């Protein structure tokens, strides 16, 4: 299968993993290892920004093997997001930033206006910007034009595990995008991750569905295999759908 390239870095795995909601950092580490993910995102608000070397969570992430992706979850506007990204680059030595601006604490839906504004500024500052957004095809094109390295439309609201509720819009985004499309948020089962990949998504980001599973390590493996299968099916070319039966064997001449 073809490799994914973001910000000049190649990724063999198309499963990106979040670090929230795990019952322990040790379990998180085991699940990340089992997933074989090469992109791990961490909310900056959960890290002691002044003691990176001794921060307990960071000791469980092998940054030599994976791309560390700090995210700005918790900021309320573009100004705060830019400031957080600058802190992140200084502390962690990476230009990769997952841009999250969702001021509403109930639904955690991303603010499209502030996200576009922040993307424009951060791209000019040399950041590799991965913006989390609603599944809005028009906004995705605007973000692409603004210099976003990817677009990350949601499948459903964060943590709901409802799957691809925005499927029709995701299809449009995938068809029209010239940057990688990563389906982020709402994926609750490996089958849903496979569905996203079959649509042509370049990757998926999964957190809650793995972290809260009865066995997070086994669930991480299940997602890994589902993402591979979905991508393989997309690259192989799925058969067309019909409204009437299509015989798999000839129906004539077998009595001749």
From TrEMBL:
Residues 6-250 form the Thiazole synthase ThiG domain. One of its GO terms (cellular component) is cytoplasm. InterPro entries: Aldolase_TIM, Thiazole_synthase_ThiG, ThiG. It comes from the Bacteria. It catalyses: [ThiS sulfur-carrier protein]-C-terminal-Gly-aminoethanethioate + 2-iminoacetate + 1-deoxy-D-xylulose 5-phosphate = [ThiS sulfur-carrier protein]-C-terminal Gly-Gly + 2-[(2R,5Z)-2-carboxy-4-methylthiazol-5(2H)-ylidene]ethyl phosphate + 2 H2O + H(+). One of its GO terms (molecular function) is thiazole synthase activity. Coiled coil: none annotated. CDD domains: ThiG. Its EC number is 2.8.1.10. The active site is at residue 98. Pfam families: ThiG. One of its GO terms (biological process) is thiamine diphosphate biosynthetic process. It is found in: Cytoplasm. Keywords: Cytoplasm, Schiff base, Thiamine biosynthesis, Transferase. 1-deoxy-D-xylulose 5-phosphate binds at residues 159, 185-186, 207-208. Its main location: cytoplasm. Pathway: Cofactor biosynthesis; thiamine diphosphate biosynthesis. Belongs to the ThiG family. Catalyzes the rearrangement of 1-deoxy-D-xylulose 5-phosphate (DXP) to produce the thiazole phosphate moiety of thiamine. Sulfur is provided by the thiocarboxylate moiety of the carrier protein ThiS. In vitro, sulfur can be provided by H(2)S. Homotetramer. Forms heterodimers with either ThiH or ThiS. This is Thiazole synthase. It comes from Barnesiella viscericola. The gene is thiG.
